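Checklist before submission:
- one chain only
- standard amino acids only
- sequence pasted in full

Submission:
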Amino acid sequence: MSFISRSGYEQIDGNTSQSIYNEETQELLCHIQSFKKSKNGYLVYNFLNIILLGIPYVFFKSYPKAKCQLVYSSSALSDAEYLLVRDNHNNYSIELVLAIDVDINGFNIKKPIRYFCHQHTKYIWIVENQVFCSLDQLVWDNKTCEEFAKDNNSLNEDNYNEIFALFGPNKIEVVVKSYWRLFIEEIFNPFYLFQAFSIALWCFDDYIIYAGCVVVLTLFSSITSLIQTRKQSKNLHDIVESSKCYEVSVLRTIFGNQQCLNISPEELVPGQCIVNESVLTGESVPLTKTEIPHETELYNIKRHEKHTLFSGTYILQTRYYGGANVLARVLRTGFDTTKGHLVKSILFPTPVNLQFYSDAFKFVYVLFCIALNGVAYCLYLYIQRHANVVTIIIRTLDIITIVVPPALPAAMTVGTVYSQSRLKKQKIFCISPPRINMCGKIKLACFDKTGTLTHDTLDLHSVLPCTSGQFNDLVLDVYKIRNYGLLEQGMASCHSLTRFNGELTGDPLDLNMFNFTMWNLEEPGTNENTRFDMLAPTVVSPDKGDYKLGIIKEFSFSSAVQCMSVICKNLEKKTFVYTKGAPEKLLGLCDPSSIPEDFESRLKLFTRNGYRVIALAYKRLPADFRWVEAQKIKRDSIECDLYLLGFIIMQNPLKVETVSVIRDLYRANIGSVMITGDHMMTAIAVARNCEIVGREDNIFIISTSQTTDTDEMPRITLENVNIGQRVDNIINIDNVETNNYFAIDGKTWIKIKCHYPELIPNIIVRTKIFARFQPDQKTQVIMELQKLDYVVAMVGDGTNDCG
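Returned file contents:
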């Protein structure tokens, strides 16, 4: 029977196997096959281990799939005692199915609860659907923001004990194995077992000195490997321990009191928090997290990240009535949190299948085949000469140790250690020595833009005002901006800045824009921790004069809508909406009469020269618009029928070392591409400036045409950036000259992957600029390149570049 469950988990092969997917990304988490213990198979397995001195144990440790076929018998998932788990990297492991007898109200789980754990993730058996699914997706599936906002009930002692039994302690622990345990795991490596066999044979045959040399070399390589392995594990353990959360209050009804536990809050309910998310973004910029809205929209961590606290990030300040503590609902704990996922990605990284090691195993296999021929020939000769049995055994086995070098792994380890010491002299450090060989095979380097190729700060270059549907002269002087009152007010008010420890903090773009106006910002209240939902608004005012503008409502920036808005009221009780965001986004929100005819050409002019362009617009609200209405109004009701005020031009200069690094890579025959979330034309300009593409190279932007029919295939369009010529021809993709390259944005990438997947290999090898790409799309690009046998280095400054 084959079906897909409500949670997106596909079950196949008559209920004996199942593929488990991530519901949000549709990425395969693992594939499982169910087994039960077979008495006959178990007896045979133990018997073979006894008579063959544990060799089957070593073999099946490396090949768990073979062990399942011998020791266990296939069964239905509902009756499984063991599961053969294949992860998304095709690595196999055997997991035990356990059960706990708990009854939890409100969850779609019936006792006894059957589950298994794989790579620190717990999967629960759902009786109704006859499938396993991950615990974190099961618990918070299909719950709206309003349900979270209204549900402030605490747990009683019984609820707590039941949930604790299911979820386990809220810990992210990296186990540091002892030297003895690491040594035991190391010696069961087939190479070391072969070395032990060879040394024993040589000692029996009086090759004492040679055997002693191999013992010394093996001990040196194994001890070096053990020290490095444990050191890396200890470093990771120390990093995780050093970032432990503080103790916070947990609302739980136990005899009318509260208890304290060490937990990581994951979702904000009432109140505000100012946080530092540099661990996620790489940018140490204070961000404001607001309470979750009372909306019927289903809660999603990515869409509602402005209302979500992520484990591992640092809370700088909380704000609530009277400075009281902020209340948060815990969504995930332990390894299911954001911090836990980061640690898991380190503990279980994508395997690096180096050609060097693959060729080494092939080499040993060929030598072993040659040795077998030698053994057969020696057996024939010694039997013909009527040699005694002991001599025949020693001499024939000696052939294997002569042909197959037992000291090969030790020699490889010594070579790696020597390479590492040479690199240290060049001030090049590597925490994973086996990757030294991989670095020598890199074919392509993928760069993020902001903070990597360019500085992570944005400087305001100029402002291009727009009045009555016409662009005016470029404004470079702050005093001239005051000739455009609405534009100046929009720049001074349309932001999410706040004061932290007396200093103005927030997004660098907002900070530079506000400082350019030379206005002042005042927040109500003397205590920063009490500045929450106050009737008195945040007030901005120029350095001279009595004019004041109060910000009574803010709609935070979202990457999904690509803009932010504020509702402001002045002393004359006139109410305005100011919206800023991506120019292409505001183009669709503004009244067509306010859009200049040269909107597109002016935008391209700036972006082609590497500037980042932000559009600003406004509209006047009715005179009877009240404060209460501002708190209830939806953002789509105000982000419409706007009037364009102009462009804000930001510049992001290259780092001093960028061009020299790209040139060094080019001389080493290592290609370079850019993968960024910035505007297409800005990315192309920066790519030219840093010489990822040459000045004379042609750049073709790949785009797809809009179709009215959902079933119709979108047509691919190529636009030559140099001459502005547009060509509708798919065949051109396969016939691109050597000095012609592609640029593609995230939306086009999605459509091509969906409708033209066969073109991806041809496109990706000729593409130099990937613009407007989300973090998960960056990962997709890397994986597609790896499928084409590229060894890729990803260079970035944030965890959004670590996919």
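Reviewer check: The radius of gyration is 32 Å.
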